Amino acid sequence: MLNxxxxxxxxxxxxxxxxxxxxxxxxxxxxxxGTDVIWQIPxxxxxxxxxxxxxxxxxxxxxxxxxxxxxCVGLPExxxxxxxxxxxKFAVLTISSAGRCWSFGEERIIxxxxxxxxxxxxxxxKLPLMALGASSGGYFVSALATDMRFSSITIMIAEGLFGxxxxxxxxxxxxxxxxxxxxxxxxxxxxxxxxxxxKGIDVAEIKCMEFPLTxxxxxxxxxxxxxxxxxxxxxxFREKGYIDENGxxxxxxxxxxxxxxxxxxxxxxxxxSEWIHHIQEELNLAYAFHEMTSLPTAQILNWFESHxx
Length: 309
Prior knowledge:
The chain is of the alpha/beta class. It has helices at 76-87, 106-121, 136-144, 183-198, 217-221, 227-240, 258-263, 266-272, 276-287, 297-306, and strands spanning 28-32, 35-40, 47-52, 90-95, 129-134, 152-156, 174-178, 203-207. Strands 1-2-4-3-5-6-7-8 form an eight-stranded mixed sheet, with helices on both faces.
């Protein structure tokens, strides 16, 4: 097991603007094979990383709004994964699923075609290819790895489809990034890790734990969110009992009525309404049950780099 992301993780080390001076978003955007395709290739790339979103996600979530991508959304965790990868000289590719979640038939053929098109278009055939998928995207990546030659993969907050498919001997090394608070999924991951090990496949895991909110947490993580608003939201959550005396979320963000409470504060709601999805993601992350997370991205990229040869 790789080092877990524990309650003592230093969030201040990964603020939303941590990469402002070292890497910028300037992705290419194309509608291809019936779906949105967004990618960026750094100077002298050393590998290619395909990212698969979860249910209700889209390719635009991984990239900040910019002249080259005016419809991009830049959700806080997705964008930081991309920035980490670009800073480490990974070419990054994102594709939108056809429906709410990924399917596992024709969509695998489409994704394979798009990835191969990008590789050939940019003469990247000699570079190692990796994939990371979260939730529905994790299931998708686990299946796609039987179609494509990935040097390694990462499956986030998902156990994969290993119980429903034959695992070939040359299946790529697999890293599971999960949140142990989801006990059922953790047990399923443990079973699948054992099944992969019996096949002689290199496997590892990163456990992501809950952590407390601070008054500046949301402004530290969400681009454009004012710190004064972050403080007001923190105070609102504390007043409503959504967080305990130590700052920990009492329930998953999806099960917390914070949006209804926000609407009762008209001045605050008018400032915050455009950040609803960003705030939701960060509250889910702090509770650590089921959410995409950028916090272990350095460890994930280390895993990818250790399997490039």
